[in-house]
Amino acid sequence: MEAVKEHKKTAVKPKEEVVIAIKGLKKSFGKKHVLTDINMEVHRGENVVVLGKSGQGKSVTIQCIVGLLTPDAGSIKVFGDEVTEMNDKQLKELRMKIGFLFQSGALFDSMTVRENLEFPLTRILKMTDQHEIDERVNEVLEGVGLLDAVDKMPSDLSGGMRKRIGLARTLIIKPEIMLYDEPTTGLDPITSREISELILDMQKKYKTTSIIITHDLECARITADRVLIMNDGKYIAEGTFEGLQKSNNEVAKAYFKDTK
Length: 260
Fold this sequence. Notes:
Elements: E1 2-3, E2 18-29, E3 32-43, E4 47-51, H1 58-65, E5 73-78, E6 81-82, H2 88-95, E7 98-101, H3 113-123, H4 130-143, H5 159-171, E8 177-181, H6 189-206, E9 209-214, H7 217-223, E10 226-231, E11 234-239, H8 241-245, H9 250-256
Parallel strand pairs: 1-11, 4-9, 4-10, 7-8, 8-9
Antiparallel strand pairs: 2-3, 2-5, 5-6, 10-11
C-alpha cells in the first residue's frame, strides 16, 4: 500500500494508543471476495476516512469490527481485545462503547425527537433519573444545533436535520468510537458540508475515535486526519487528503483528479 507522508493536521504519532487494529482481514460471500487483505490501525482521537467505490466492501469492514459479520480470516482487535473470539456478552459490552451513524439516520418515526434520544439512555444504559436524562438530551441537541426540535416528529424534519438528530442519538451514550457509514449520502452540498463540519466538531468535543466510510471527497477533506483508499478488497494508498492529491498511484489519482 502506498503511504503518503504529508500532513494537513497534527500527525498522529505511533506511540499513541491503537484503538482498532486489523490484520489480514478477509471476507467472502459465496464466490464473491469482498475483503481480500485489509490492514488498518486507528489511534485514539483520530478520524480515519475510507474512500472507495460502491461495492468495495467498505461497510463490510465496520460490520466485522463490531462482530455483526464474522470474517473468514484475519485479526480484529478493539481496545486490545480480539473481536473474533468474543462471546455474545463481550460483544454487547463492546458495542456499548461504539456509536453508529448509518445513511438513513435510523430514527424511530413514531417517536418524537426527545423520545428517540431517551431510548438509548433508558434501554441501553438503563438510566432512570429523569433530570439526568433531560440534561443529556439537551446537551447533545445543543451540540448539533437543534435544541428547538426536541418535541418534533422525524417527519417534520429535513434530511439534514434528521441526520443531525441521528448523530445526537448516537453521541448521547458517549461512545469512545464512532463509525460513520456514508454520513452525507442524499444530502445537498451545503447540508453535506454542515454534517461534515459537525462530525469534526463532535470529534473535538467528545474526543471520539472515528472511521468514516464515504465516497464524498469534500467530507473526506473536512473530516480526515488520514485517508485510506480501498480498491479490490484492500487498501491501496493512505495519507492525508493533501498528500493523496499528489499521489502517483493511478487509483488515487482517479479519485483526486478534480480536486487540485
